[in-house]
Amino acid sequence: MKSLTLRSQVVVWFVGLTVVILAVAARAMYLETRDHLSAALDQGMAATATTLVALSDWDEHAEAVEFELDEDLAARMAASRPGSSEEILTWPERAPVHTRGPELLAPLPEPDWAADADLRAREWVEYTTAEGPQGKVRICSMLAYTPPDPEELDAHEFTLLVRVQESLAPLEAELAAVLRFTLGFGLVALAAAILLGFALARRVTG
Fold first, then answer.
1. 140 CB burial (10 A radius; 0-12, 13-18, 19+)
2. Which one, of 161, 125, 157, lies nearest residue 57 by Cα?
3. CA–CA separation, 179 vs 194, rounded Å?
4. What is the dihedral of CA 36, 75, 96, 147, to 10 degrees?
5. What is the pTM of this model?
6. Could you tell me which residues are beta bridge partners of residue 128?
7. Could you say which DSSP state residue 70 is in?
8. Which residue, among 32, 41, 30, 34, has the nearest Cα to 128 in the 3D structure?
9. Splitting the chain (206 residues) into consecutive groups of 10 residues, what average pLDDT does each group show?
């Protein structure tokens, strides 16, 4: 078998090194983008859950937790997050307080779900991913304790289980766009590397 000429060896080594560098850089960029988008989604869902807790208060007349939100504001919030779902339940009674959007795809947690969580000191948050008929969804489940209002004589404390569900379709679309851009840029860079490899080989063997 005829061995490669020096010029061919230079081209092969240069192109091979470029391919390795591009592959490592592309993988790192894709993973970093995925982690950034996923973290942003989780933070947004947790912020929504915290807002829902803040909008829940004890109704002295009904002797129950009441969800208070203006209808116009609720409509605008729903329009800004199409396909999303919200659910508020009292804990551990699991009495419904507020529900909006399609059915959540994750089952309710078991009674000992947060047995080790000190809800008086902080919130307890868990994230899960589920497969639905319209694709994957991300679900944020939060247990939040609301202390009694010190300014009210007959104040009540309560704990809520808040769940927020968001479609992963927008995130997956962004990742697909990043992947297409990365592949396109990689092909252009590879073509440029081949041309540079031939130019370098000519200089080395010239």
1. buried
2. 157
3. 22
4. 70
5. 0.78
6. 139
7. -
8. 41
9. 63 78 86 93 93 87 82 72 86 89 80 54 80 89 84 77 93 92 84 76 66
